[in-house]
Amino acid sequence: MSHAGGPAGEADEQQRTTTKVVLISIVAAIGGFLFGFDTAVINGAVKAVTEEFRLGDFLSGFAVSCALLGAAVGAWFAGRLADRYGRKAVMIVGGGLFAISAVGSAFAFGVVDLILWRVVGGVGVGVASVIAPTYIAEVAPAHIRGRLASLQQLAITVGIFVALLSDAFIANTAGGASEEAWLGWDAWRWMFLAGVVPSVVWAFLALQVPESPRYLIAQGQTQKATDVLREVLGTKSLDALQRKVADIKQSMRREHDPSLRDLLGHRFGLLPIVWVGILLSVFQQAVGINVIFYYSTVLWQAVGFEESQAFTTSVITSVTNVVVTFIAIATVDRIGRKPLLLVGSAAMAVSLAVMAVSFAQATGGVENPSLPAPWGVIAVVAANAYVVAFGATWGPVVWVLLGEMFPNKIRAAALAVAASAQWLANFAISTSFPSLASAGLQFAYGLYATFAALSFVFVWRAVRETKGRELEDMGADTDVRDAKVDRRR
Questions:
Q1: pLDDT > 90 in the chain, percent
Q2: Which of 168, 222, 447, 458 has the most crowded CB, counting CB atoms within 10 A?
Q3: Contact yes or no for 328/391 (Cβ under 8 A)
């Protein structure tokens, strides 16, 4: 009979603990599912909504992207709310807001209240975008933290896929997004209502997971934190647990109630590490990824696809996005964060440039562009190559970095600022796309290719590798380096 303390017992315990940590992280990552679902569900509904409410280009673009303004607000306040009330409570609130938004959007009687409900849902999604990576980073052991944090992006891609799949199913069943479906409702209303299911599931499951040990220690609940650490670290050694608690306390020793003042520095008003987080977030959106998922159905119809074919193409693209995320999960803790970002930047710049060249060959004007052979095929291949490049690198890796790159004492506040910047950048890119497209899609994709090239330079010069480091170690060298930079300035 093997003893629990022997090698076999330790291996079994480590396996159980790893499974437990994965399950806990999956629950948190469902917030990413809501993120992805919300960003893509409008894809199938946008044309029908535009026709239903007789919207012009600006209002059509704003109806699509208004949720991102709510997301920026949700992300901005999420960190402070999580530090005050706990990670679990904020996850539950985020799920509730998204459920309310799904119902309200389904019953919208005009563009004004549709926008209002979309913004409410955006607040919930913004909360999820901050809390999920924060929670995962705080419960995950260092050696698998990158892979577990990548679950956030995997959940986002699955959310996009499920939204597009449900859109396609509902539209095909009804004969079109504008046609009547069940109970006499238009199909596009059912597309929104489907979001109730994952939001309620997330709120329920959030009740079942343990609170973050770092939050518990900040609240003085050391014993509860020790119990959680025992679960997630897979050790019964009291000395090891006490050392871990001491490390966390040491990293928090200079903390006070979290405030945006903690982020201030002499480099353009903020600490350099905060600017790195902001620019990572902005570049992730500036390469135009969400244009593919917000407008892909309309885009493929514009280049000659029938509505059903366009829906199918969008679903295929989203499946590709899900599959390639597993590449990042398999490699982020082996290759590292920075090399993946560099490869992704280069590949995105090339594929976006090819898309720009392809659409420059379009005939029929900007209203009804048509790509002559072989440019239509080249555009489809380049678009999917771009999705592969983003999904395997920038999509998941940025969330990994944002969850782990900041010192404990500013993590929640800094992540909130970075996530807010990401949502605002997403809003700017999504809202501007219809106007850019009206001048010619080659200009839009050319701009995104330029941003991808600039992101390569930024990562090369400014991003530090975090692979394999404990969260408690993030602050020491960051504080020293940032202080040196500030003194030089």
A1: 13
A2: 168
A3: yes
